[in-house]
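Budget justification aside, the reviewers requested a transparent look at the raw inputs and outputs of the sequence design task funded under Objective 1. We therefore reproduce one unedited record. The lines immediately below are the structure tokens for a 182-residue chain.
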């Protein structure tokens, strides 16, 4: 596949009814699992961990605070860049999946933030807790639970909005092919 910087026509690629049903079932099961999972870890978190650790390495070039924050930035940038690619190509299902993945990251990021004082989560590497360090630097360590909860809420809102957007875009099209841009 050739990568082109030229923007495709303004119409979005639609999702067939069968594919939409499959995607909606996947999202419903994932959301149900996320809502009932008490461990705080979801299947995508293994992929996110790789992006998180790579983010620390990449952002190391920008100083200590950026190195610590880079883990979270890395796990957000990977799905965001993928979403940007699919958005650019006007691929409805791909944009929705990558946006859903982006917002799913907020669930674990929020859990990680809320753990800044209790330090109960298992850590990779040096054993330093990113959010304990960052919240300590910023003077908000005592608010770790509130910040973590707000971050998790943002993730839930974003995931639900993404699923609603996919359903709306698919409903607009009515048939497989292209969807006019909003």
């Amino acid at each position: 596949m050739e990568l082109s910087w030229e923007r495709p026509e303004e119409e979005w690629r639609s999702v067939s009814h069968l594919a939409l049903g499959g995607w909606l079932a996947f999202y419903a099961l994932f959301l149900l699992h996320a809502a009932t999972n008490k461990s705080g870890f979801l299947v995508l978190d293994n992929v996110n961990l790789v992006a998180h650790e790579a983010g620390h390495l990449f952002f190391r070039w920008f100083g200590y605070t950026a190195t610590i924050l880079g883990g979270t930035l890395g796990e957000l940038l990977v799905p965001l860049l993928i979403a940007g690619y699919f958005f650019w190509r006007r691929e409805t299902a791909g944009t929705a999946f990558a946006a859903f993945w982006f917002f799913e990251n907020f669930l674990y990021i929020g859990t990680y933030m809320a753990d800044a004082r209790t330090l109960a989560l298992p850590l990779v590497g040096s054993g330093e807790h990113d959010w304990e360090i960052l919240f300590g630097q910023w003077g908000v360590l005592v608010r770790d639970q509130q910040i973590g909860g707000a971050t998790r809420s943002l993730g839930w809102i974003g995931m639900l909005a993404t699923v609603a957007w996919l359903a709306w875009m698919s409903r607009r099209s009515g048939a497989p092919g292209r969807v006019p841009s909003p």
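The beta strands are 12-13, 178-179. The longest strand covers residues 12-13. Computational costs for records of this kind are itemized in the attached budget.
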